[in-house]
Amino acid sequence: MDTILFFKAALIGLSVAAPVGPIGLLCIQRTLAQGRRVGFVSGLGAAAADACYGAVGAFGVSALTAWFVALRSPLALAGGLFLGWMGWRMLRSRGGGGEAAVARPARSGWAAFASVLALTLANPMTIVSFTAIFASLGARGAGAASPGLMVAGVFVGSAAWWLGLSMGVAAVRTRIDARGMRRVDQFAGVVLLAFALYQLRRWWAG
């Protein structure tokens, strides 16, 4: 039973990570600009955030759930501003692809991980989703170890997606020249700014 729950949770983690949104776009851009390691570590930040919120939902820590949900407004504001700042930085990037991209020194793995972790944690309503999903799968009634196994499953499923994505994008990295990378940065910057404006509009509307 625990094994089945683990694989179900892994599929949930994979399905949560797979849709291409601002986090996926950011990881693609980082992989192209700075290499597979930075792209994958960035994705691990999202996987860790999903696991954190999944843990709160799986173990039924109602006080923490209420606290995070109460913080959804300031977190949405902070997340929107952070997305906007990152989009603006990409628009101002000089780009660089092909051999230049390979030679470019990668940014700190911890910085890449932390930035995506913070962006993903800026959506505390994820806790509510995980709480409902885990309850429907019977995590709390299947055994003492089940919630922990399901949280691990969510992390593994999400991490598997980010590993596959970073490896796939890295395979074409050297084929993109500096001009092409500049266009990628501009596109990613515009999209991130659009997501930021959408999130800030939702925050303003309450």
UniProtKB/TrEMBL annotation:
Pfam families: LysE. InterPro entries: LeuE-type. PANTHER family: ARGININE EXPORTER PROTEIN ARGO (PTHR30086), ARGININE EXPORTER PROTEIN ARGO-RELATED (PTHR30086:SF20). It is found in: Cell membrane. The chain crosses the membrane at residues 6-28, 40-61, 67-88, 109-137, 149-172. Its main location: membrane. Keywords: Cell membrane, Membrane, Transmembrane, Transmembrane helix. It comes from the Bacteria. One of its GO terms (molecular function) is amino acid transmembrane transporter activity. One of its GO terms (cellular component) is plasma membrane. It is a multi-pass membrane protein. This is Lysine transporter LysE. It comes from Rhodoferax koreensis.
